[in-house]
Amino acid sequence: MGIVAILFALGCEFADEWFHRGLAYSPYLPLLLTPLGFAFTVWLMRKYFPGCQGSGIPQTIAALEHGVGEQRSKLLSLKIAAGKILLTMMGLATGSCVGREGPTVQIGASIMHSLSRFAKFTKHEMDRGLILAGGAAGVAAAFNTPLAGIVFAIEEMGRSFDEHNSSTILMTVIIAGISSLALLGNYSYFGHTSETLVFGKQWEVVIVCGISGGLLGGLFSRTLIMINRGLPGKAGRAMREHPVMLAASCGLILALMGLISGNSIYGSGYIEAKEILSGTGTLPEEYGLLKMIATLVSYVSGIPGGIMAPSLSTGAGFGANIAQYIPSVPTGAAVTLGMVAYFSGATQVPITAFVIVMEMTDNHEMILPLMAASFIASACSKLVCPTSLFHTLSANFVKRPAVIGHP
């Protein structure tokens, strides 16, 4: 699983690099490439790879909580894993604002579920444990954050846990981590940051980031849930009846946003977040807001892709905005807190949020501020969006075909 995740990561990086080479040739290229690419990707998905749309985490949760037998195989299979890899790379190659981490969860769960069938496991809990392990390994390998993979499996995907499943998950995550170390070395996703906060007088930024990140993340989730359930009237009917046209329209909107943002909103946002964190970037002040909208537009289009990495990048943008108004706080610290707060607000998994950011920035001095901002953000998010994004989408997925990009 770890090797597949690493190869997928390398493929996504190549696809994103290919798109940016086109941007260097002409910044207007996305006006044609992105709508056509989105439309073709959605057409291909609906015809040959149903079940590959969106993040992949809702499908994995649905398979864990509601799926059995053939129903589970419709959500997790080797065909879906192959489609997820191909179509996510196609989306990135044509300018989508998505991450690979959510898809990696579904890919990992699909591989482990398929292995359970080939090995003829008969117990339902064994099959469930392997799916959990595959999803956890996906997060661990994609971000090179093994602890975050375990926490994510427990906090978001599992919701119920037993000793047998824990050993399965730990072993799979360890193997995925070793594979990542062997192929890519011991790296931190965003490098190393050393900023700290003085307890007391600088902690105001924790509260500001926690509240603002939570409210903005909750707004993002609520909007996505509302659109996924279906808009009323002619707009909602058009989205359901013309998904390929919807994808092309979203592609055009994204291309126009790209021109407004100086072509900074495409892709997962990894490079932009790293630039903001290190203070070396020249991004527009409205980057955080534009990235949030671009992520929403990409998800609504129906193409495969996750929201984790774009959410971290969005949070980095908002953190940089907050840092301008609190000059006594190190900019890197505000950016890191913005990342964890928005991520926690969008996903409502506060423990995963602060663990994943801590591992990705390799800054253990910020554990307490990250933890506090994450829990404040999760609480504030629930004021705007009472239900968890991934679990709500998974429930809709089981009850009826999802509106966005589903055949």
Short key terms for the protein model shown above:
mainly alpha, single chain, 2 domains, 407 residues, Clc chloride channel, 0% strand, disordered C terminus
CATH class annotation of the largest domain: Mainly Alpha
Shape: globular
Query: How much of the sequence is in beta strands?
Result: under 5%
> How many domains is the backbone divided into?
2
CATH topology category name of the largest domain: Clc chloride channel
Helices, by number, come to 19
Amino-to-carboxy terminus distance: 28 Å
CATH architecture of the largest domain: Orthogonal Bundle
Question: Structural class of the helices, strands and pairings?
Answer: mainly alpha
Describe this structure in words.
The chain has two domains: 2-184, Orthogonal Bundle (Clc chloride channel); 204-399, Clc chloride channel (Orthogonal Bundle). It is 74% helix and 0% strand. It contains 19 helices and no strands. Residues 160-171 and 400-407 have low confidence and may be disordered.
Q: Secondary structure elements and their pairing?
A:
Elements: H1 2-25, H2 30-48, H3 57-65, H4 69-75, H5 78-93, H6 101-118, H7 124-143, H8 146-158, H9 163-184, H10 204-229, H11 233-241, H12 243-260, H13 270-278, H14 287-301, H15 308-325, H16 331-347, H17 350-361, H18 367-384, H19 389-399
Helix pairs in contact: 1-5, 1-7, 1-9, 2-5, 2-12, 3-4, 3-7, 3-19, 5-6, 6-7, 7-8, 7-9, 8-9, 8-17, 10-14, 10-15, 10-16, 10-18, 10-19, 12-14, 13-15, 14-15, 15-16, 16-17, 16-18, 17-18
